[in-house]
Fold each of these.
Amino acid sequence: MRYCFSTIVRLMPAVFFGLSLLIFSPEVLAKSSTASLSVDFSKNQTAEQQTNLLRTSDGISVFRQGDQAFFLASAQDIPVVNAFPFLTVAPVVEVQNYDPSLVKIQIRFSKDGLTWDPWLEATAFEDGIQAPTLFIGNLFYLDTTFTKFQYMVLFSNSVQSVTPVKVKNLRFDFFSPGQVQPLSPGLIYQRPMPGNEGTACSCPMPGVATRTEWNCPDGQNPSCPSPEFSATTHLIVHHSAGSNTSTNWAATVLSIWNFHVNTNGWCDIGYNYVIDPDGVIYEGRGGGADVKGAHFCANNSGAMGVCMLGSFESSTPTSAALESLRKLLAWKSCDSDLNPLISTFHASTGKNLPVISGHRDGCATACPGDAFYAIFPSLRVSVDTALSACQGVSSLEDEFGLLGFRMYPNPGTEVVRVSWDQQTAVKGSVMLTNVQGSVLYQQNKTLTPGVSEHQIDVRGLASGLYVLHVQAGATTVRKQLIVRH
């Protein structure tokens, strides 16, 4: 096709504008990037200021016991350029006889090398394993306008032990997510719940942003070469302990993947799901809800991990985030036949834990934050309400008048009683199954008006978890029953 000269002239501004976008737009140019700065203290590292330090082939330690000691580095260039939409940095310390009360890592940032933000103390990455020879700090989230950073190794003036703390190597891992499409709840379509065939579960899986949608480098493929799977028995809730604000939460999820994989050394992001303050649920570790993650005190079998983005020591997650968490936990409770109101034995930890637990229920950690953990009782009730609603309990009560439904005692040891106030006559049944669905007891009966009570002898059953089914017409209500001898 031919164009006259005047047409070409008219098109030139548009062409120039398009090229300028490609050349100058950070959104177009920005790609994810990583860079690290390493320090070997066994060598003669230059300091801006240092005092009371002993340097050996094992690193630096306190020279005079009981006196303050520190190493203050000179200003360093942040080794990532053209960062977008934010920067993260995580400190990794190789240390002998690590004791958080005796040595701390502090870091501060500057946009011009002249004016500095306040010192920030590195806190331990509690979802990982802190060994006596290794400290991994949580992510710091930074504005892209910062160009300089400075760090300090600060030893306590408390008397060191017979084997003093020695800091040998220090590494700072920087990361820029690059161009990641921000996601909103309206963009995440409803996906059918996998693995629901052949069960009585009717709770839908909420919409989930896929790994591809948050730019996971491995896409939908699991990052772990040989993912492990286990039947979910407990739902573990975390917080990320990071910023409560972000311009791009999908990029934040990518930064956590990079931190877990490239800094902490795992094969994939540790959590099964991540939820942002806007209520978007992100698919985490590749392989699905029952894939074994890395988030629960090295006891991850049977534990599905959900991380709420933000820090919740003094505030709770947003209502949108809590609503998405409620839907996700109700779906998984239905999918795995869990009772969100009870505690059951978690084989990997060897503890009796609430089905919906916080990270701190499994080991010594502040996660998921004091303010958030305080509302876990109401969270469990709201999940149970959602579970009952999608399992047809409300319609059963409304349509057939099955009011005041009770099952007691629970746990049961000898005889379990089921009672209700039946307002209308309807054909139904009472049935008890194990968690695999095998029928252990069943009696068909007409549910007559008035208060009814049914008794089930459980003395011949092994201690464990069972499911009671009360069927009225075409609708069934299910309740978890624990038998304990």
Amino acid sequence: MHLQPVILSGGSGTRLWPLSREAYPKQFLPLTGSKTMLQDTALRLDGLVDEHPRLGLLLRDPIIVCNEAHRFLVAEQFRLLGRSPAAILLEPFGRNTAPALTLAALAAASADDPILLVAPADHAIANGEAFRSAVADGAALAEQGAVITFGIVPAKPETGYGYIQQGEKHADAALNGAAYRLHAFVEKPDRETAERYLASGEYLWNSGIFMLRASVWLNLIRRFRPEIAEACELAMEAGRADGEFRRLETAAFKACPSDSIDYAVMERLSQADAAPEHPAIVLPLDAGWSDVGAWSALWEVREQDGEGNVLDGDAFVHESHNNLLIAQSRMLAAVGVDNLIVVETPDAVLVVDRERAQDVKAVTKFLSDSQRNEHRHHQRVHRPWGAFESITMGGRYQVKRLTVKPGEALSKQMHHHRAEHWVVVSGTAKVTNDDKTFLLTENQSTYIPVGATHRLENPGTIPLEIIEVQSGSYLGEDDIVRFDDLYDRGGDSGC
């Protein structure tokens, strides 16, 4: 039995601003440990085959479905793990989880018809063994044609999650835990309703994790939402391989309706006789799950001191209780305060009552409406060749620090409105400046005039550090004309 993990990495994580940004969202951050949330998701099934040998599982490398703009971040995360995904499917537009799963099922479809384990990239699960035990049960049921969703055993009357109502018990003596027929999906409740759900024992939190055979999903999506199936099939057929990535045909995918797995298929399956050959089953999961969807959730899953404080970075508290303090670039102190979230980054500081953590979206909306950049990028902006960060900026100048990874290169480009001075801090730079190509080493510099065609490369084996001084009438990242790019970034802005 082949098990194909599918990791959905399309989230933006705006409620965890300012750590999570649109261009570098929470799944790429180490929020709950030393590894990022995407890496933890990829590693979560390690041990499954040995722990449950009776199933005869063959575990495949994961398929990742992600935003096209995040493709190099995904590839880098797996490179750091020393692993390679089976495929990285690039969505030019977000269309929710049903189209994402359809793309993955099309990519995974083969003669052995693997079982898909579909999970978001940005959830935390503390008890990996309990999770793998539930996955083993899901695999046994999915092999028989069932469609599995995992419901989280609720720890409190939570109003921020959708719920799943359990139906009658599904009898199967071979399972490690209990299984139930799926009765209904329920929207996020108010407090009184959530308390009633918890007291009844019939309701579970909706985890967004599913299991089913690839052929089963494709049959169901074609039956219930044929327009989604058709658009995804056209986008895949007319797409193309781009190195380790799979690009979709943009026009075909743009026509695809947006819908979730829950609405497109699961709710229909919960109706009587909708597809009796594919029963919808919910497996209760009690494994320390969190979607880490807000700062209050991160405070709950992180280790706390004796006063309920979570401290990350150079942070200090005095006579303070139940706070989350994160300091990235300077010392952060809190005295005599309770129930606060304080997050400090080089370019922004967030202070919010822990009970109002969901309202951080008001900040990102303000930043977006004001056409500011702090909701999209960190001060340190990642590129496939490395990263850059702004050190200081004036009316007609800007100073940046560039870090170029060994063997990588910026695009061959020119600027209409700015000149640049490059000073090598460490490493070796290969510079193209119009018709000249030469090497620069530590403490050497060069000048790139306005309109000059230029390129910066790192031919060495250690990172190249450059101080770049820009001067001109316009210093925006979109003042760039690309002539050649190793990473096929097309219209992506920036160097």
Amino acid sequence: MQQPLNDAITWQDGERPFSEAFQDHFFSIADGRAECGHVFIDANRLAERFPACGRFSIGELGFGTGLNFCETFRQWKTCRKRDGHLSFTSFELYPMTRDDIVRALAHWPEIEAERQALVAAWPDRPDGIITLALDPQTSLTVICGDALASLAALHDTFDAWYLDGFAPARNPDMWSESLMRAVFDHTGPGGTFGTYTAAGFVRRNLQAAGFLVERRPGFAGKREMLAGYRPGER
């Protein structure tokens, strides 16, 4: 089924995308790229794990502007093995247009090369399953549609998860117990997750799914965030 383009975006201060549908920003007002580093890359220990892996897979709930992917791609290139391969799979109900991605990511010169690679390959009308080879060692798949239904149809398991839907109070379906169970079922033993939220019902849903969960200091003055892992040996 063809998905609608995300046309419910307004722009604050000329560069920050805001979702009118969910009444929430796509990333931290303080610094979205730094937030990605703290909440997802550091919480999942990727700087430690990337150099040690042959193949590594990341799952993400909420592709949004592609900022998390671009920052991950940048850091992956700095420390990957010569024969390493990163597979990044994201689930997005309302994929952005190429022009909106360009505008949203223009603020960060640090990821300019990654932004250019992404938008050069991004389809004119993003829908269905988007599969992109960004370089010989990096592949991106964006599955456009309902996250729970899309994840249920997959047999893949992931080494790390970025749980990055809009705020739980505004987008509760992205944090439901059924979706957190599906995430757990698609996580390899010892696989990890990070998320900016510390909402109580999200923590309980992650624990009910089977994850071991801990609170950690949040980003940019936010008191807490959540991180954790699926028990078992990798």
Amino acid sequence: MNHRNYYQILHVQADAPKEVIRSSYRTMMQKLKMHPDLGGNHDDAAVVNEAYKVLMNDTARAQYDAGLSSKQTSKPHAEKTKHPNDTNQPSRKNSYADNKQQCVFCNAPHNMGSNIGPDDICPKCESPVFPAKKQSTKVCDKRTIERINKEWSVKFFHSWPNAQAHTGKTRNVSLNGMQLLTTESLVISQVIKLISNELDVVAIVVNRQLGASEDSVEWSYGLEFVTLRFHQAHGTFISLAI
């Protein structure tokens, strides 16, 4: 029990309010049918109940947070290995983007090397192959670009070959990544291909959280761009955020 991360068990952030914790708990037990009365595994449900009981009690949660913080301080390397949802870990983006001889998504060789251009795509799966550069937050006369709450309808793929298109929508789009809302289940560090009318990307899932809505089971994923291709001028995209 000392090794369990209750926040990860309930798919919430460490600063999540009780309303979000309660919503996530109900979604897991009812809509995802983890409750034993709905066919769920008794042991799994017991762990979820344990996490919920602690995080909904102010005193118990404070004690748990103190213990969790102490473990993270004394075992920083072990914590990074045990908790892949930790967004403070070094990104895997560079390890993918550094290989300029093959597609990040389908791994097919393209041999473009240093000749890759912003509009180049993989000849096999048509994914963008131009590496997404880490953008500074200061552009255009040093004005700051913040994430824009832009909802775009998108399609995405998480397997190749025999790829199946899934649907979702974006939120909080920036030049470095975006938030993806969908009912499809993805895992941390998974590589996906996403296409829209505005841009095509290959991205890594860096965090996830169950949506707070009780009307449907919806996941919110943080994506970090690995490769990127715009369908319109780069400056046009920037102008949306300024």
